[in-house]
Amino acid sequence: MSGPVGEGSASDEPTARTSDPQGSEFVSRYGGPGQRPATWDVPPHHDATCEPRPAGAGSTVVRMQRVVVVSVACALLLVLVACGGGGSGHDAVDASFTRFDGSQASIRDYRGKPVVMNFFSSTCVPCQTEMPALEHIHRTAGDKVTFLGLDVQDTAESGRAFVESVGVTWDMGRDPDASILQSLGGTALPTTVLLDADGRIVYQHLGALEVPDLEKQLRQHGFIT
Known about the structure:
Layout: E1 26-27, E2 33-34, H1 60-81, E3 96-98, E4 104-106, E5 115-120, H2 125-141, E6 146-151, H3 156-166, E7 171-174, H4 179-183, E8 191-195, E9 201-206, H5 211-220
Parallel strand pairs: 5-6, 6-7
Antiparallel strand pairs: 1-2, 3-4, 5-8, 8-9
């Protein structure tokens, strides 16, 4: 993946992804592939088995303790996100962002209707392949559901060009340092978050969505018939 924006620092927390340090495609527990921009301020990569990367200088005892902690954390993570679903949140999502035209907006502005919030990047291949499916549902759902896209890595110019090239017609904004995505627990792209009319998360998915998948979730939560 190319075109880094912003700066990031690594930590020692585990993530279920490939060991590619540049964040290439991986198969997630959420049921779809995802990509991670190389410069996010998120934990370093581990492989699909959640095994930690080789430790630096330190004793064998310390390294073994880290393995145990990471293993427990991975097990808890998989329990929480297994099968691609995200539980409903008690607190409404409230974050400000900048649109491609430079104007300011807030996720709070979209309350009153369900929201499909999609985090993407022009350099993310799964993001490119899922856009037509999201646009199809956006058109068929009409005004029952609001769609909001947040571009995570691109410049405003490249993000706008990508949106125009794929023919997306819903609202768009920018999350260049992935701060909004990370605040929702997101770690890779594409990530789609479904909010109820009060702004609370009722579903979260990592990986490309297809039309039947998203329609099922919208119907399950009573947002479409």
